[in-house]
Amino acid sequence: MAHEEAVMGGKDRPEGISPTAVEGAPGLWRVDLQRHDLSIEGREVVQSRVEFTPDSPPFKHFHPGEEIICVLQGSLEYTLDGQPPVVCNVGDALTVPYGVHHQARNVGDGVAVELATYVVEKGKPLLTRVE
């Protein structure tokens, strides 16, 4: 399997996407809210608002630590390797364990938004795509 760090890019902003969001993949937009070292040596917390357009294609990826998700808007379907897909709606939370390959897709009609909190190894790419 080939792995690559997702590249942040930018283009015309779809309706409903935050004005400060940066496109991280087709139809997937991020607003980084905070990044801080933790009291656990070699770990940091990164918190982002992630926005998915209705046509955003899912892509498999992983993180160098845990991802704690809370859906703020819309409905998102998460698929974690070895588990059946689960749909999360507004207010639902999900934790993705360290290094687990997963993907998310918008299963609603409009923009879907999650608050993603990552507790990760400092100095490693936050997101690595799995081809």
Polypeptide structure, described:
The protein is mainly β and 131 residues long. Helix content is 0%, strand content 53%. The chain contains no helices and twelve strands. It has strands at residues 3-5, 22-25, 28-37, 43-52, 61-62, 65-73, 75-80, 86-89, 93-96, 102-106, 112-121, 128-130. The strands form three sheets. The protein has a six-stranded antiparallel beta sheet with strand order 2-3-4-11-6-9, with no helix packed on it. The model is unreliable at 1-10 (pLDDT under 50).
What is the approximate shape? Answer: globular
Strand/helix succession: EEEEEEEEEEEE
Unreliable runs: 1-10
In round numbers, the mean pLDDT is 91
Secondary-structure class: mainly beta
Largest sheet: 6 strands, antiparallel
Tally of contiguous helical segments: 0
What's the N-to-C terminus distance?
6 Å
Count all strands and give the number. 12
| Spatial strand order of the main sheet | 2-3-4-11-6-9
Radius of gyration: 14 Å
Name the helicity range: under 10%
**How much of the polypeptide forms β-strand, as a percent range?**
over 45%
